[in-house]
Design brief:
The complex is a heterodimer of chains A (about 220) and B (about 325).
Chain A (H helix, E strand, L loop, with lengths): L1 E9 L5 E10 L4 E5 L6 H8 L7 E6 L2 E2 L8 H5 L2 E4 L11 H11 L4 H14 L15 H13 L5 E5 L7 H16 L3 E5 L3 H7 L2 E6 L2 E6 L4
Parallel strand pairs in A: 3-8, 3-9, 6-7, 7-8
Antiparallel strand pairs in A: 1-2, 1-4, 4-5, 9-10
Helix pairs in contact in A: 3-4, 3-5, 4-5
Chain B lengths: L5 H4 L8 H22 L1 H37 L3 E5 L5 H12 L4 E7 L1 H12 L2 H5 L9 E6 L5 H12 L4 E6 L2 H42 L1 H9 L4 H44 L11 H29 L4
The chains are: A alpha/beta (about 220), B alpha+beta (about 325).
Amino acid sequence: MIQLNNVTKRFPGGQEAISGLSLSIDKGEMVFVTGHSGAGKSTLLRLIALIERPSDGQIIVDNQNTRRVKRRKIPAYRRQIGMVFQDHKLLYDRPVFDNVALPLIIAGVSYRDAGRRVRAALDQVGLLHKEKQRPATLSAGEQQRVGIARAIITRPKLLIADEPTGNLDPDLSLEVMRIFRRFNEVGVTLLIASHDITLIDSLGCRRIALEDGKLQQEADPWQ
Amino acid sequence: MAITRNADAIAPVRSSSVFSIWLARHTSTSLGALGRLSRQPFASLMIILVIGVTLALPAAINVIVKNMQSVSNSWSNALDFSMYLKKDLTVSDAEDLANLIRQRADIESVGLITADEALLEFKKQSGFGKALNQLSENPLPHALVIRPSSGNTGASLTLLQEEIRNLPETELVQVDTEWVQRFHAILDIVRQAISIGVVLLGIAIVVIIGNIIRLDIENRREEIEVTKLIGASNAFVRRPFLWTGFWYGLLGGAFALLLVQYGLYLLREPVSRLAGLYQGKITVASLTITESSAIIGIAVFLGLFASWVTAARHMRRIEPR
């Protein structure tokens, strides 16, 4: 699903966030990216989401070389990937329903047709009864689940999440991870950046550890 | 997961035609933009006011010029000139001459005012009746009032007047319509000035709306970033701002129309009083349907143009970080 060949991301100052990184993630995998802050976790996800372009190397997402995705085509490319952020990135001036519906509206689905799917997505994250509330009235864990509902509403094959549990206490974190797990069980590929090693270990998923933009080790629980 | 068109990207949604998607998007975005304006009624009203006044100014001047022109046209149709005959001509000589001139193709009518009639009229009008009675003989000549046919051009009129002037019976030819031509020249200058003014005011409106839209974009920067992050195209994030510009233009144009029509309504009364004094039929011509739609059209165009230029410039700059 995702393949990186010798990818380097150099910032204008000259420092490298990712240097010569190669890795491969199969379809249907649930993979964690770990490492200290500044190790390049976020940059890796941003490269995959085409928020950044690599300085060097090749990134292939679902058989598609991202270098060939023209600027004009980036929105269409992003619509195929579900994204979850540490700070949720919700729109606080509109209710939960509208937030979750947004990807569908962007894709041209009418507001009315979107309703059924918005409720299905909210049901999956356990927030069906909160659709009319404003995000600001929700707890951090609930806001994150709204973010997840928004990410999965277009039924992407790939979901990337940058520190999705960064602001949550352990119980809420575990709940979010369980939600991710359920998506993984129906075939969604997940790539999650996190520094919560204990939580990750308890899930028993593959881990990609980054250090200074390079691969530190690949801890595979099945070996 | 190859890149496909929007509609394909989400397979299990009831398929609707491209047009109905387009229509639904625009309907909801336009209403959304209108809702946004109505949520800040005071600010929106001020902007609409500014646009309205700015547009009403040239429109009003234009209407005034148009009215003056129609009034002066009715004057210039009266191209009559007077031909005073030599003193030694008798009434029957004058009648013969009038009949002769009347037969010309470029003459519409010829009226004869005999010396006696002229004196009578003069006595009545001038108030010198008694003094004039002292005169031993009538000092006034016979006169012909000649009305050229409407087919005449300026050049043929001059030629006609020259011919009449050269007739042996003619003492004097008097033309009274030169000032009408001068008046027309002045109106032409005013018109020219308006069209220059319209361009300048148009630029002002574009700048005003552009600035408002720019502020709006800055205020909604975060929202734009987030929507772009989850796959919105530039066109998608631009759309609400275009509609905002559209509504400003439409409402501002409508307000300008209202101002002009109300102004004309206020003028109607004094103008008809003036017309009464002149026994004339001067009516105030208001804006025609074409002119009204032109004002609205120009306003909408300026609004759309301003918002499009501004949004296009700023949307590219706002990228998710």
